[in-house]
Amino acid sequence: MKRARKPEKIARYEAELALPPFPYALQYLWDAFNRIRRRKGSDFAGPAPISWPDIDAFCRHSRLYLHPWEIAIIEQLDDLYLKVTDKADAQGFEA
Length: 95
What we know:
Layout: H1 6-17, H2 27-39, E1 42-43, E2 46-47, H3 52-62, H4 68-91
Antiparallel strand pairs: 1-2
Helix pairs in contact: 2-4
């Protein structure tokens, strides 16, 4: 098997890691997700999903009102987080 040259390999890795620009208009949702997630515990099975009471408590204590579509985004972010951490655990990596 022929090995790829370093510049080609680097270019391939960079292409795999390329991301679209961060939508800064939604920074507040990313911050809210991270604040809730940092306070969420885990058990023997790994991180627990963010629950409705977690979101409710966050909104009450931070006095940040979240519309249903904003809550849906936080839930989607959490689903992705749980999926990635589960996959990383299965492969023996830390997420």
